[in-house]
Amino acid sequence: MIDMLATVYPWIKAFHIMSVIAWMAALFYLPRLYVYHSEQVGLSGDTHALFQTMEYKLLKVIMNPAMIATWIFGICLALIPGVVDWGAVWPWTKLVGILAMSGFHGWLSGQRKAFAAGGPIKTGRQYRMMNEVPTLLMVLIVLSVVVKF
After folding, report:
1. 114 closest CA partner among 50, 55, 46, 54
2. What are the tens digits of pLDDT across the range 118-132?
3. What is the reported pLDDT for 129?
């Protein structure tokens, strides 16, 4: 199995990168929807229902599958001999970043449920601040992989 993974390494890497891009796009967009939802829409009415639909579909149709694909292709890459030097620091800092990104994903999912339940929700300013979390984690992950510190 490991030999087969090595044979298809470029394909696995390509699909990993594509799934990371889709996941990151959703992680950037969903908190922005929450900003508008909390500041301009509120927790009732037709526009609230529209925002709930958009948030639900972004999470369930794009974000969740992209995260799952990212994890699957990432684990496949990690299983290929010679791809990861587990004696170095960088794989561990990357792993911490990935776990934190997955935790943030879970937090966003919980926030969608809070909107659906009618609150309590954060302020627009709080969602704006939380929108920076994936950027900071992305910096940690990319520097870990590229610079290999």
Report:
1. 55
2. 989 999 999 999 999
3. 97
Tokens of 126: 């709080």
pLDDT above 70 covers a percentage of the chain that reads 99
Domain count across the chain: 1
Q: Looking at per-residue confidence, does 1 or 16 come out higher?
A: 16
pLDDT in tens, 45-71: 999 999 999 999 999 999 999 999 999
pLDDT score at 2: 72
Give the residue numbers spanning the domain of 106.
2-146
Q: Which amino acid is at 108?
A: L
**DSSP annotation string for the chain:** -HHHHHHTHHHHHHHHHHHHHHHHHHHHHHHHHHHHIIIII-SSSHHHHHHHHHHHHIIIIIIHHHHHHHHHHHHHHHHSTTT--TTSSHHHHHHHHHHHHHHHHHHHHHHHHHHHHT-----HHHHHHHTTHHHHHHHHHHHHHHT--
DSSP conformation letters of 48-72: HHHHHHHHHHIIIIIIHHHHHHHHH
